[in-house]
Amino acid sequence: MALDKAALEEVVGTVAGDDTLFAAAPDPSRARALERRLRGLVGRR
Description:
alpha+beta
């Protein structure tokens, strides 16, 4: 829910389970930008 409330421009939809998250991006370049952003939040490269 926090990801939905963040209103990230790279995200057009999300689905989440107990330990899984899927975030859809509208195109490949924004998907890569979203990946970098999320990896930065969790401290992974």
